Amino acid sequence: MVSPGTLLKASYNASKEFFRPPVAEARAPEQQPAAAPRVQPVMVPIRSIGPSHGERIATHLLALGAHDRYLRFGYAANDEQVRRYVDGLNFDRDEIFGIYNRKLQLIAMAHLAHSTDPNLKSCAEFGVSVLAQARGRGYGSRLFDRAVMHARNDGVDMMFIHALSENTAMLNIARKAGATIVRDGSESEAYLKLPPADLDSRMTEMVEEQIAQTDYRLKVQAKQFWDLLGVIQEVRQGVRDGRDRMPM
Questions:
Q1: pTM of the entire structure?
Q2: Residue among 142, 111, 143 nearest 126 (CA)
């Protein structure tokens, strides 16, 4: 598990990039051999999101293609069914986690649903979705790890994943985490026994959530800055165009 100090340092380094304009990449001198790429750990800010983000959640799920909706919900959900799912989210009982890009688009989200059965209070179910353009970056696994940590800290000792057997990406995430997978025809059930919370899990979740909230605020400020700059540039261009059209 990443230490809180490392998380804070990574967050600070990432935040400095928000307000920097794009620059051309420098070309390495031809006489120098290309160095082997260094793989650096990348921190992905994952924040807990509430009912005020309901429209962004709906936009995210509605952007999923027909097959992706089929894998996420277990059936070919239409727009009305997706809207009904979003309207039925219980933000007091469950936990929703999200990853936002710089345009404040929700590109990946997870739903950790706690059991409504009084006899199964220590159980929760995990579901995840990632937009097509954001795949291949391990977001599903990151969201799963974040949900596991929160579940532990919330007293959950068993996490379930109900998925179609053809949803290999989801089942692979569960299998890598050590979950037991039981297949029943076209559907599969994965369950993962969680260890109890400890000081490390509680501190790490607290720090990660704070970093994610700060990251989101920075993205909001950066988007407002670049949107305002775009408006100013449009106004300037309009003034120039008007000046050019004036008779001499």
A1: 0.75
A2: 111
